[in-house]
Amino acid sequence: MEKRKFTNLLFASFFFIGVFQNIQAQFFKKLKQSVENRIAEKADKEIDGMFKYNHTEKPKKENETVHINGQQENTSIAPKKPAEEVAQSSDTDVITYKAPSADFVDIIIQSHKGLPRYGDLHYRLGVTTPVNNEGYKKLVELKFLRETYDDMNLAKLTSYEEKSSGDQRQGNSYFAQSHLKNLAGQVCSEEVLKTYFCDETANASNTNTKSKYQSSRQIPCEFSDSYKIRKVPSHWGGSRNNEFQQQRSYKGFSEKYLRTLQSWADTFFGNGEQVAYLVNTTNINGKYDFKNKGFWLTGLIRSSGFMLHPSNFLAYSENEKKIKNSHQQFFFSIDPQKAKEFNLQERVPLNCVFKVKVFPKVVNHTQVQFDFELVDPIIEIYSKNEALTEKLGEIDIENLQSKQ
Question: Which of 47, 131, 269, 385 has the greatest number of CB atoms lying within 10 Å of its CB?
């Protein structure tokens, strides 16, 4: 009996020793795993930091002045904004003209190789960076219509009857006040627009709850459409029925912001000109010419677009005059294998890109015309991808082959 008790006690001792060792082993195993995980995590962070440092370009300063073709441009990198305000773009470049204060918005236009891009633009909702082409154009017009603005009545709004009287100064005043209103709608901040272009009663009703005494015809103040494109303000003060409110808004705005806007406008088109790129659409006419290895293209400068119109092309040489004639055809040399690769065939559209110099010219008291000339004889030909990422070849204007 004693022997049996001793055996059971010995067995129990070995059992508890085994269980303790197993628990101890699991504890040390978990402790070891925890330490290893922390070490690995720390190492990953350090490696990520190394790669971020090595693969990130040196940040550009805001308000940085750059020199393009010897001209000093008031441009800068667009500041980072939330995704809902500015869509991130990976396939188009932009130039940002910084606003002089928080009362205005930055002006953003598309660019090509660091210069403004005119003519056909690249637009894809939610992909390309939102631009403000109209604001850009209005500021440039403001710069060159200075004499018209000098006739603007700063004390009160000029009536339609006064404009129709035949007095040129009254006509200039009426136009300038309207132009200033439209410009403000494009370049002013939302807060400024609410101050000077909102009907006071309509603005007060722009709440989630609506009083039964408020008119159902009142419209909340909104300055952009569903695509975030700025609208043209209808009236100073936001009302066409309250003359006193209109006068207050116009006089207050012009006194506070006109000189600032004119100073900002003066930074555009240094020396009265601008080097830029003009993008136009052309089409393949006919089948591939295996003898001469290429295609005939119809019209190289024929479509109007942002800022420039083909009728304002200053053609000097005989070949430039042929290009201005939209009925001419021009030969584009391209290897048959490359033509096959890009599926080029009859009627397929292509992009042609010209480097130009633009000269704004006042043609009358209310209109600025944008004349332009070529500054490079080489026309770049791209596939019909508005991002201009697939260059197919070039046409040298000095060795131009053309036919009717």
Answer: 131
CA–CA distances in Å: residue 178 to residues 52, 158, 233, 304: 51, 10, 10, 25
Per-residue pLDDT at 361: 95
**Residue 16: pLDDT above 50?**
no
Q: Check: CB of residue 237 under 8 Å from CB of residue 177.
A: no
> 């082993």: which residue's tokens?
25
Which pTM does this prediction carry? 0.73
**DSSP conformation letters of 334-360:** --HHHHHHTT--TT-EEEEEEEEEEEE
Residue 24 sits at the vertex; the CA angle it makes with 22 and 25, to the nearest 5 degrees, is: 65
Nearest to 118 by CA among 368, 393, 363, 353: 353
CB-side exposure of 130: number of CA atoms within 13 Å?
17
Q: Tell me the pLDDT tens digit for each residue of 200-230.
A: 665 454 444 444 434 434 456 888 877 778 8
d(CA 395, CA 277): 16
pLDDT at 329 over 50: yes
Question: Can you give 109-144 as a three-state secondary structure string?
Answer: EEEECCEEEEECCCCCCCCCCCCCHHHHHHHHHHHH
Point out the least confidently predicted range of 183-197, 254-268, 319-333. 319-333
Residue 46 reports pLDDT greater than 60: no
The length of the chain is 404
The Cα 250–Cα 255 span in angstroms is 8
Residue 202: φ, ψ to 5°: -70, -40
